[in-house]
Design brief:
Elements lengths: L2 H41 L4 H15 L2 H24 L7 H31 L5 H11 L1 H26 L5 H30 L11 H40 L3 E6 L4 E5 L4 H7 L18 E6 L9 H10 L5 E3 L9 E5 L19 E12 L2 H5 L4 H22 L2 E6 L2 E6 L5 H25 L10 E17 L2 E7 L1 H15 L4 E4 H7 L7 E5 L8 E6 L7 H8 L1
Parallel strand pairs: 1-5, 9-11
Antiparallel strand pairs: 1-2, 3-4, 3-5, 6-8, 6-9, 7-8, 9-10, 11-13, 12-13
Helix pairs in contact: 1-2, 1-3, 1-6, 1-7, 3-4, 3-8, 4-6, 4-8, 5-6, 5-7, 6-7, 12-13, 13-15, 13-16
Length: 568
């Protein structure tokens, strides 16, 4: 690699990083402005006077020189970056969520122009204070259609802001815990704001819209000027957008003379112009390709293995290099969203997309992430000897009865049945609750399995050589959770040391001739009283430190709390 190439790569990486920072920073400023504005509207539910009092604080924050530059500068930066996204895309084929977010970003300037011109600019032109009393009356009484458009604009702007925040925060470790509360806030804030606007409109309809001492001719002239400025803004936006589309079309036409071929492992090939990313090639060719972050290089779900043409590829930019280093990728692995081949290349997507799901760039239901879970393994004791000398139909019947009671116990407790392996089963708890609640659910499920198996043994007493017994292992901790599998067999599952330890504890339960062996970590987190059960320290294969466990022998009652929870 030449020194010049390395220097260019670093400069390009720094530029991309600055663009991402600018997009994020401007978006956060605009989101803060909109959130405070909506909160101010919500105060109108109390009274116009209270809303106006809060508005003075709002204006003090945003109508000073620093606030003005920050707000309108952020709006211009965000709009310019949206235009840049439209220009740089080699294809307009994209997942619906990406198209929706870009569409909202394009619509917002048009929707907000009338609001800005009708308040701040109109106030400067006419001298009429843009108080809540005046604006509410204008939008509610004199121009309700304008008020309806402004209400729609409120929903569009807030929806775009919430989508941006969601895509930015969704893989943070804490997001799962806070997501329900954030969703409540995201829904309540615009609803309360619109209700405040309605209430203010009704109240303002009883007041005089024009303050005394203001010349009606000045107001008329200000309205005419505002309308002219609004038409100018619309024309400017249309001109800029058309120019971007024309520039994009010219660039694509120029690039068509430099076609390359991206070949895939299944034999398909897509011819695209140089400058297209491998992910864009997949979308153009209608080839399903994962890209959880939307092609921004923040995740590694689009990564591909280069099977031919590796030596002719450009070096990774800073964004791609950082992500590849974070996942410890091998030299022949690249990110499809960042890799822009300059010659023919053959690739194999590492995370195969589900081909049954139509549409470009459709994603698995749950991308990989780390989270706290509780894992339960259970297995029928002595099932091999139990199935000897029985007809296959009888064995299948018995297993299906067992699987049914296990599945019912797990689902009633709030868990997810992961898989069956022979006569064993694995269940996951905590996909959408805290670790403490997950451990409680696992204890409730274990109680349900044992109780159900006792009932099943009594019902089949004449058909079985003895009562059915089960060995259960439970452990809690961090695990990697996501949709894993191939083709039609894609399921949400968990992998990692926590899962392996839970599986080993189920084997330990067999060694101890116990009904349940639960790690002390899971037992303590469940808040059930396991103090009366034997505490042992066991060595687990693959785990460096011994694991403290509680041993529940067959016939011993589980903690009263778990029994009560199961009954509830």
């Amino acid at each position: 690699m030449s020194e010049r190439t390395e220097s260019e790569r670093r400069r390009a990486g720094r530029f991309e990083a600055r663009l991402r920072t600018a997009r994020l920073g401007s978006g956060l400023v605009l989101t803060a402005f909109v959130a405070l504005h909506l909160a101010n509207h919500a105060v109108l539910l109390i009274s116009l006077e209270d809303g106006e009092a809060m508005r003075r604080w709002f204006l003090a924050l945003w109508r000073n020189p620093v606030g003005t530059v920050l707000l309108y500068g952020s709006a211009l930066v965000h709009f310019a970056l949206t235009m840049q996204v439209v220009y740089r895309r080699r294809t307009l084929l994209m997942p619906a969520r990406e198209a929706f977010q870009i569409g909202l970003g394009l619509a917002i300037p048009l929707l907000l122009a009338e609001h800005v011109l009708g308040t701040r600019v109109y106030h400067a032109l006419s001298g009429v204070p843009d108080t809540y009393d005046f604006v509410a009356r204008a939008l509610w009484v004199y121009s309700p259609w304008t008020g309806a458009r402004q209400s729609f604009a409120t929903l569009v702007v807030w929806g775009h802001a919430c989508l941006g925040l969601y895509f930015w925060l969704r893989y943070r470790p804490w997001f799962g815990r806070w997501a329900p509360w954030l969703l409540i806030l995201a829904v309540l804030l615009p609803v309360l704001a619109l209700l405040g606007f309605v209430d203010a409109g009704r109240e303002a309809a009883l007041t005089d819209p024009v303050p005394s001492g203001v010349d009606a001719a000045v107001i008329a002239q200000a309205l005419a000027t505002k309308d002219a400025l609004l038409r100018m803004v619309y024309a400017t936006f249309a001109t800029i957008f058309a120019a971007v589309l024309i520039a994009r079309a010219l660039r694509i036409r120029r690039e068509r003379g430099q076609l390359i071929e991206v070949r895939y492992a299944d034999g398909r090939a897509v011819r695209v112009a140089r400058g297209h990313s491998v992910l864009e090639a997949s979308r153009i060719g209608g080839i399903p390709h994962n890209a959880v972050c939307g092609g921004k290089g923040r995740c590694s779900t689009c990564r591909v293995r280069i099977t031919a043409g590796l030596d002719r590829l450009p070096v990774p930019n800073a964004v791609e290099a950082a992500t590849l280093e974070r996942i410890g990728a091998e030299p022949d692995v690249r990110l499809a969203c960042q890799l822009r081949p300059v010659a023919n290349v053959s690739v194999t997507p590492i995370l195969a997309a589900d081909r049954r799901r139509a549409g470009v760039g459709v994603l698995p239901s749950t991308p990989g992430r780390e989270q706290d879970v509780a894992v339960l393994f259970c297995d029928i004791r002595g099932f091999t000897s139990l199935s000897d000398r029985r007809l296959p139909f009888d064995v299948v019947f018995l297993l299906n009865r067992y699987f049914s009671l296990v599945g019912t116990a797990v689902e009633r407790a709030g868990g997810r049945l992961d898989k069956f392996v022979g006569d064993g089963a694995m269940a996951i708890f905590g996909l959408d609750v805290t670790r403490e609640e997950a451990c409680r659910q696992a204890g409730v499920a274990a109680e349900g399995i044992i109780t159900g198996l006792d009932t099943m043994s009594r019902e089949l007493e004449g058909e079985l050589p003895g009562p059915l017994r089960v060995a259960i292992g439970i452990h809690a901790g961090r695990a990697i959770v996501g949709s894993m599998g191939y083709g039609g067999v894609m399921n949400v599952t968990a992998i990692g040391d926590t899962v392996n330890t839970a599986s080993r504890l189920e084997a330990v339960a067999k060694e101890f001739d116990a009904a349940i062996v639960i790690s002390e970590r899971a037992a303590s987190a469940s808040n059930f009283d396991f103090s009366s059960y034997e505490l042992r320290r066991v060595d687990i294969r693959g785990v460096r430190q011994p694991v403290d466990v509680r041993v529940v022998l067959p016939g011993a009652p589980l903690p009263a709390a778990s029994v009560g929870e199961a009954a509830a």
